[in-house]
Amino acid sequence: MRANRLFWGLRFLVMAIVLVTAISLVVMTLWNWLAPSLFGWHVINLAQAAGLLLLCRVLFGGLMGRGGMHWRRRFAERWEQMSPEERERFRAGMRGRCGRQSPDSAQTPNPAASA
Known about the structure:
Helix content: over 70%
Largest sheet: none
Number of domains: 2
Oligomer: single chain
Number of helices: 6
Structural class: mainly alpha
Shape: flat
Mean pLDDT: 82
Low-confidence stretches: none
């Protein structure tokens, strides 16, 4: 049983190393193909590509699990608990915040525009 766990652990480690190396190779190839010709930046090597991947993971994805995507589950739970009136109020508020006008505000004249 213990040897089986060791085997699976080593297999996982090897697969993780192969996966990180393959993704780093893709990043390195794309970077070296695009960045120097478009922006005049330097060519990077495989270790720098892996570091770039890690940096992007820390900045944009977090360090644990699925990263910052846990907010979707919490929002879905809260959405299910809302009544239809609360959902419509939320939608109207988001339309106002996101630059879209609600149908009610589109019909009223803007006093700042006439001044």
